[in-house]
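Whether sequence alone determines local backbone shape is best considered at the level of individual chains. When preparing material for the folding task, we compiled for one chain both its residues and its backbone structure tokens. The sequence in question and its structure tokens are set out directly beneath this paragraph.
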Amino acid sequence: MESLNLPVFDYNMKHIEGKPHIFDVLRKKFVLITPEEWVRQHVVHLLLNHYGYPKALIRNEGGLKLNQLRKRTDILVFDRLGKPYLLVECKAPQVAVTQQVFDQIARYNHVHQAPYLVVTNGLTHFCCCVNHQLNTVDFLDDLPRFAP
């Protein structure tokens, strides 16, 4: 897999029916490794190992309903009260982080109302803080750390 601009982590891979799979520590199963999944697994381990988020508060590939359509969020982190806190949209490294990607996560966040959004393709990363009351967005230099 392609080298990313994210910290390396220990991972477990195996082939299932001739295709490479990576063990997802959140879903507790092997999942097909695609370029986007490679980025998602890096971000999960970044949140766990570098920012202190507990596994129990992170959900991979969660569903949501948006305008009568079923969609999937890449990563959703909850706060201790069970409210959405940080929403992450992952793209494959060859997919540019464009306005369309920001529009996608904004649509998803219309449902979740998380105060923090992250967009990454594993090479380029953006994090912003959303104030839903004032309708403002401020870009941050780093992701928020978990506050126990």
Notes: The chain has a mean pLDDT of 91.
